[in-house]
Design brief:
Elements lengths: L2 E3 L11 E2 L5 H6 L1 H20 L6 H23 L14 H20 L8 H24 L6 H24 L1 H30 L3 E3 L2 H11 L4 H4 L2 H20 L6 H28 L1
Antiparallel strand pairs: 1-2, 1-3
Helix pairs in contact: 2-4, 3-4, 3-5, 3-11, 4-5, 6-7, 6-11, 7-10, 7-11, 8-10, 10-11
InterPro entries: DUF63
Keywords: Membrane, Transmembrane, Transmembrane helix
Pfam family, one: DUF63
């Protein structure tokens, strides 16, 4: 989702805080940055092919911490006053390509320097570096941005997403076991990512007072606001259900074998997981410093 709220940190002076900044318009507004990042991503793909590195399920999972890196960088870009030539790299959706290029560089370097008897595999090194990248990004955001951490609503949204993920996954496993078997860990990541986006959006819209900017999401929320349930349930619940439906639909497509090549399945699941995890984690990080 893409929203703004008149509230939170900095709201006292009338500031508006973006929940997820940027859109396709960001790509067209910064064509040189977009081209440079596209070339960087192409270089990662080309280098991985030259080294015969396969995008296995484990590899795609190892890139997921870099989605969190992208979300954290996006929040950092909105919290600190940065040079103008850096801001586009930290604005969604370009920030996700920035994180992919950084993670891809780590992937290539790990493949070049780690030996078979090393303590970590290439994929493990990729994931670990991504996780450890979060510490300095968070530290800089909090220290230089002068922010205090307010964890209550992020924790609530996260726990609700976890509980919903477990419940839906168990239901899917009991009724369509071939779907959960075919999608595996990445399937669970898809489900959790979109439920996290849904729960954080619900909290942002109905509790924290954010306003939606993404046109499609805005229509869903506006429609929900016209229903008789609006006074009791708010508007965010419908967005949550839509996100759940999207996730389950993608799992069903992969589970039914409509994408027959494993690499395409892994990439489809990875990209779908990123589409949910990215804004969901961004929302969590932003809520924590409002």
């Amino acid at each position: 989702m893409q929203s703004v709220a008149a509230g939170g940190a900095g709201a006292g002076d009338g500031a508006f805080w973006p929940l997820v900044a940027g859109s396709v318009e960001t790509v067209t507004a910064f064509p040189l940055y977009s081209l440079a990042l596209a070339l960087g991503a192409a270089a990662v793909v080309s280098s991985s092919r030259a080294r015969r590195l396969d995008a296995t399920e484990t590899t795609v999972v190892a890139f997921l911490p870099w989605v969190a890196v992208a979300a954290a960088l996006s929040v950092l870009g909105k919290t600190l006053v940065l040079p103008a030539n850096v801001v586009p790299l930290l604005t969604a959706p370009l920030v996700y390509v920035t994180a992919f290029v950084l993670g891809g560089a780590v992937w290539i370097l790990a493949a070049d320097h780690l030996h078979p008897d090393s303590m970590w595999s290439v994929d493990e090194a990729l994931a670990v570096v991504g996780v450890f990248m979060l510490a300095p990004i968070t530290g800089v955001t909090l220290s230089l941005g002068g922010r205090e951490v307010h964890p209550f609503w992020p924790v609530v949204a996260f726990l609700v997403a976890v509980v919903c993920t477990v419940a839906v996954w168990r239901w899917l496993d009991g009724n369509t076991p071939h779907v959960t078997a075919a999608t595996g860990v990445l399937g669970a990541a898809v489900l959790f990512g979109h439920l996290l986006d849904g729960t954080t959006t619900l909290v942002g819209i109905d509790i924290l007072g954010f306003a939606e900017q993404t046109p499609l999401s805005l229509r869903i929320l506006e429609f929900a606001a016209t229903l008789p349930t609006a006074d009791l349930l708010g508007a965010g619940w419908l967005f949550l259900l839509v996100k759940l439906a999207v996730a389950v639909a993608v799992l069903w497509v992969v589970g039914e074998g409509m994408t027959d090549r494993p690499i395409y399945q892994h990439l489809l699941l990875g990209l779908t997981a990123t589409a949910g995890l990215g804004p969901g984690l961004h929302n969590l990080f932003l809520y924590a410093i409002l």
